[in-house]
Amino acid sequence: MKTSWAILTLTVLASTRLAAAESVAPSGAVACISTTSMLHYADAAESGDRAKLKRLLNGECRMLEGKPYALLEEHNGTVKIAVFRKSNDWETAEVFYTLEEMLQLE
Hints:
Blueprint: H1 2-20, E1 22-24, E2 30-32, H2 35-47, H3 50-57, E3 61-63, E4 68-75, E5 78-83, E6 94-99, H4 100-103
Antiparallel strand pairs: 1-4, 2-3, 4-5, 5-6
Helix pairs in contact: 2-3
C-alpha cells in the first residue's frame, strides 16, 4: 500500500511540474483543436496546399507565436498543450495539439 501511494505521489508531482513549466511559443508555431486537425495541417504544409492551410487557420488551427503555453502531454511527436490568454492564468487556458518540432522541443 505504501508503494502505491509513493508512486501516485510521484506521478502527481511530475505531472504538476510538467504543467506548471510555462514557455513561450516560437515563431511559426501552430496548434490545432485536435490531433487530426494538426496532422491535416502538417500534410497541407508539406504539400504546399495554401487553400487548405488557410481554411485550417480560419477554423481549427491557430498561430501560437509568442503566446505562453504549458506542456501537458507528449506522445509520438504530438504534444498536448495549454495555451494561455493571460500568462500562467489557468482560467484563460485552452487545450490545443501541436508537433514537438513546431515548439522546437528536443
